[in-house]
Specification:
- The chain is 37% helix and 23% strand.
- Helix 2 packs across helix 4, helix 2 crosses helix 8 and helix 8 packs antiparallel against helix 11.
- The chain is α/β, with parallel strands linked by helices.
- Strands 1-4-3-2-5-6-8-7 form an eight-stranded mixed beta sheet.
- Bound molecules: S-adenosylmethionine.
- S-adenosylmethionine binds next to helix 1 and strand 3.
Length: 276
């Protein structure tokens, strides 16, 4: 059963989520099937950063469908995913069997969890959605001294094949070009995460760590990755055609390059971390 802290509402996050497309039927399941889960090396890096073999508590902010939460089940004593979208949280609960993992429905800025108990507070592909200052303050409150806040993101598109990548880039540009002119739906740039973590004053040391993960994909997964982009599904729902969105071209390029043959792909990751 998820706990609920939605009475602690953040209007900016609320507005962003209401235009995210994450609530649409089938979106969470598609996201969970197609997005990457963090590889074991990420867990190794974060345990080293926090100077623990196995963390007692990991809190995963913006845990989505649990892709970034579940891998900790075998490493940590306890794992808590904090997620604001009921649909994403429901998918996470359905897809997670481990007894030491639970999900809280709350905003990252107001988790309702106790002070100073976490070795790690993670934020996977999610910090750009959150108001930085209250999120850093909450992460620092949850961490024990020496604990680590780690915001990490993967680069789009993955390394697959230049034609597929070019088509994916084109789709991303078309989706971005369709953003509301008044700035609604705009999120924080990921390349500013480290500077903002440093400037927050909550962390004694901050740095960026870059690495890559190996994964596998066929054409259907590449198209599924594109369809797991909330803004694309919103634009399609508003009436943009698959052709106009660049999805038809991506599907064709992926079919030419991969078809139903699953091949190795590489995913670039960037961790921006702060030590409390
Ligand atoms: C791109 S998904 C990443 C999900 C997951 N961490 C992963 O790596 O697959 C971002 C998630 O953050 C959630 N989110 C956005 N703003 C939030 C906030 N202020 N508090 C908690 N969750 C939030 C969204 O609902 C979404 O599920």
């Amino acid at each position: 059963m998820a706990e609920n802290s939605r009475d602690l509402v953040d209007p900016w996050s609320e507005e962003l989520l209401s235009t995210s497309g994450y609530e649409r039927t089938g979106f969470a399941a598609g996201f969970d099937s197609n997005r990457p889960a963090p590889p074991p090396v990420l867990l190794d890096i974060l345990c080293l950063a926090a100077q623990v073999d196995g963390p007692r508590l990991v809190v995963d902010l913006g845990s989505g469908t649990g892709l970034s939460t579940r891998p900790w089940a075998d490493r940590a004593e306890q794992v808590i995913g904090v997620e604001a979208s009921p649909e994403m949280r429901a998918q996470a609960e359905a897809a997670t069997g481990a007894d030491n993992v639970r999900f809280v429905q709350a905003y990252a800025q107001a988790t309702g969890l106790p002070d100073g108990e976490a070795d790690l507070v993670t934020c996977s592909q999610a910090l750009h959605w959150m108001k930085p200052e209250p999120t850093f303050a909450e992460a620092a409150r949850l961490l024990r001294p020496g604990g680590v806040f780690a915001a990490y993101d993967y680069d789009w598109p993955p390394v697959v094949n230049w034609e597929v990548e070019a088509a994916f880039e084109e789709l991303l540009q078309r989706v971005r070009a369709g953003r509301a002119p008044d700035g609604r739906g705009m999120r924080y740039a990921k390349d500013g995460h480290l500077e903002r973590i440093e400037a927050s004053g909550h962390f004694r040391y901050a740095r960026e760590v870059v690495f890559h993960a190996r994964d596998r994909a066929d054409a259907a997964r590449i198209v599924g990755m594109a369809l797991s982009l909330g803004p694309l599904t919103v634009r399609l729902h508003e009436g943009l055609s698959e052709e106009e969105a660049g999805l038809t071209a991506l599907r064709e390029a992926a079919n030419r390059a991969l078809g139903d043959h699953e091949t190795e792909i590489f995913i670039g990751y960037r961790i921006r971390l702060g030590v409390k």
